[in-house]
Trp operon repressor homolog
Amino acid sequence: MKTVYNQRDPQEWLDFVALLKQAVAEDKLDQFFSLFLTADERGSLGLRVQIIQSLLKGEHSQREIQQALNTSAATITRGSNMLKQFDPDFIAWVNGKLNGKA
């Protein structure tokens, strides 16, 4: 029997974001992420930051980024595809924060 994925209630994400904002306001981010994310998940987020940073710099091809970060081509492609979905002003803000331009 095929299992069908049921999307969870979008309010759950909003609740998580609200809790995250409280953790920021109360300087509890490290504890927050240690509670909600495994070590592997935290590592994956770190890799995602490196991927987005490298893609935004534009100094290397996706294949070169893949090899430098020792990850799959699909992972790099997912990062590249996500960049195309966001408002250019937001991407410019992220680029500034990640690449020291802001």
Remarks:
- The domain at 10-99 is CATH 1.10.1270.10 (Trp Operon Repressor; Chain A).
- The CA atoms of residues 20 and 26 lie 10 Å apart.
- The chain has a mean pLDDT of 90.
